[in-house]
Amino acid sequence: MATITAADVNKLRTITGAGMMDCKKALVEADGDFDLAIENLRKKGQKVAANRSDRESTEGAAIAVVNADKTSGVVITLNCETDFVGKNEGFVKLATDLANQALNFDTKEAFLASDFNGITVADKLIEQTGVIGEKIEVASFERLSGTFVGSYIHAGNKIATLVALSANVDGAEEASRNVAMQAAAMNPIALNEEGVDAAIIEKEIEIAKDQLRAEGKPEAMLENISKGKIQRFYKDNTLVNQDYIKDSSMSVANYIKSVDAGLVVTGFKRVALG
């Protein structure tokens, strides 16, 4: 029987993130063989994952990160079952580490298959399911590229956003963060009018017409009045047309132009828990 020291237990804990007692038990069962102990912990994770596969994982951490030259970013959610786990410092660090790794991949599938400290990201999630005892998954994965990309993470890591600007000008860092904050707070459905699905507009027009009919408006007037309501819909629901939350006297598009006359928002991504 191998002698299991506190240093051995701490080493395994550092590698896997598992608790002290779980690490000690795994090493004892593996007779001091680190590779076997790690494998046993992963098998435990697989069992827990299978038992909890039908659980809802709507808590966790939403993380947005941007590369060094500010031309590309990724935003992910690492989901778990309870708010208690989602707020845990170690869980948030894992989510951040995973987001930084995700920067290197264009798809969620490639990211999950990539190596993360000797195992795939997918296997790491299974391992952590066993360690934490809750269903753990990367539920959201979004990329955004542009001439300048900024990010924002809402307090508590519940919402994270990315915003791309057309140029890297003086003030681009602050401007992109402000617009990313806008996207987090106001949850636009599209960047601008062109980004709104035609089916959504058709539905909104019909809703507007039904409301107008209920108010007794003549049928001949419905088309023109409903068009005005659609313009209001764009103002409320598209990012660049929304009132800027820090100064409602201007739209987001006009705020960006106040930073630089030729500057425009070219894209955004928003993910949220739940």
Give the topology.
Layout: H1 6-16, H2 20-29, H3 34-51, E1 59-66, E2 72-80, H4 83-86, H5 89-102, H6 108-113, E3 115-116, E4 119-120, H7 121-132, E5 137-145, E6 148-153, E7 159-165, H8 172-186, H9 198-214, H10 219-237, E8 243-244, E9 247-251, H11 252-259, E10 265-272
Antiparallel strand pairs: 1-2, 2-5, 3-4, 6-7, 7-10, 8-9
Helix pairs in contact: 1-2, 2-3, 3-7, 9-10
Describe what you observe in this structure.
- The chain has eleven helices and ten strands.
- The radius of gyration is 24 Å and the shape is elongated.
- The strands form four sheets. A three-stranded antiparallel beta sheet has the order 1-2-5.
- A hairpin with a 5-residue loop joins strand 1 (59-66) and strand 2 (72-80).
- It has 274 residues and is an alpha+beta fold.
Structural class by helix and strand composition? alpha+beta
Major sheet description = 3 strands, antiparallel
**Shape annotation:** elongated
- The proportion of residues in beta strands is 15-25%
Count helical runs.
Answer: 11
Parts with pLDDT < 50 across at least 5 consecutive residues: none
Give the number of DSSP strands: 10
Q: Distance between the terminal alpha carbons, to the nearest Å?
A: 48 Å
Strand order of the largest sheet: 1-2-5
Rg, rounded, reads: 24 Å
Helix share bin: 40-55%
Query: Residue-averaged pLDDT, rounded?
Result: 89
Q: What is the string of helix and strand elements?
A: HHHEEHHHEEHEEEHHHEEHE
